Amino acid sequence: MFSFKKFVVKQNRCAMKIGTDGVLLGAWTPIENNPFSILDIGAGTGIIALMLAQRSNAEQIDALEIDEEAYEQSVDNFENSPWSDRLFCFHAGLDEFVEEPEDEYDLIVSNPPFYTDDFKSATEQRDLARFADAMPFEDLIEAADLLLSENGIFSVIIPFKEEEIFLALAKEYELYPLKITRVKGTPTTEIKRSLLAFSRNESVNFPINELIIETSRHQYTPEYIELTKDFYLKM
């Protein structure tokens, strides 16, 4: 179990445990458009949807999870949270979900699987959660284009090395960067992740910045503390 300030997440049945990526995306994702409806693609434990329920007044927060164990865990985590009336999880793949879209969403978030290396682990469940062939970037962007409302925001966290490709693919679907934050573990390490937010409106001078998580082991930067303090117990 993982306890946050306002909710608890059980993760014993999920292949992908709670990590910094999910917490970063949940805390960083722009909600200036005051979303009424939110969709989390690839919910895992449900952590990102739960964080967005805490941060926003969205009345409809849907999550999508293909893995049965993770889906059931998400449902439990949603039901045991203070926002159970606003959270709902679908047990489906992205391809099924977009076949008959019923709703548009003001905010779509995803911490997609992205280990594209040839290495595969011994467990198929973990591989499914971690490998990009389960949900290629193009499928994700196409779905976002299909499901995003006119003034909606689409927000993801991906490996920095994939940023250029992702931006180019998004542009093909007329989704334009609204904000980019590049994440480093420490001041001396290389950039590891890109947090990307998109909208349908092209903006010329959108903010691009860098976030460093810690200066040394467990010595977190003021910026990281500021971003996550509403969630982590010890921040």
TrEMBL record:
Keyword Secreted (UniProt): no
Domain Methyltransferase small: start-end pairs: 37-119
Compartment(s): Cytoplasm
Gene Ontology molecular functions: nucleic acid binding; tRNA (adenine-N6)-methyltransferase activity
GO biological processes: methylation; tRNA processing
Gene Ontology cellular-component terms listed: cytoplasm
SUPFAM superfamilies (alphabetical): S-adenosyl-L-methionine-dependent methyltransferases
Entry-linked CDD domains: AdoMet_MTases (cd02440)
InterPro entries: DNA_methylase_N6_adenine_CS, SAM-dependent_MTases_sf, Small_mtfrase_dom, tRNA_Adenine-N(6)_MTase, tRNA_adenine-N6_MeTrfase
UniProt keyword terms in alphabetical order: Cytoplasm, Methyltransferase, S-adenosyl-L-methionine, Transferase, tRNA processing
EC numbers on record: 2.1.1.223
UniProt catalytic activity: adenosine(37) in tRNA1(Val) + S-adenosyl-L-methionine = N(6)-methyladenosine(37) in tRNA1(Val) + S-adenosyl-L-homocysteine + H(+)
PANTHER family, alphabetized: TRNA1(VAL) (ADENINE(37)-N6)-METHYLTRANSFERASE
Record's function text: Specifically methylates the adenine in position 37 of tRNA(1)(Val) (anticodon cmo5UAC).
Family per record: Belongs to the methyltransferase superfamily. tRNA (adenine-N(6)-)-methyltransferase family.
Record-given protein name: tRNA1(Val) (adenine(37)-N6)-methyltransferase
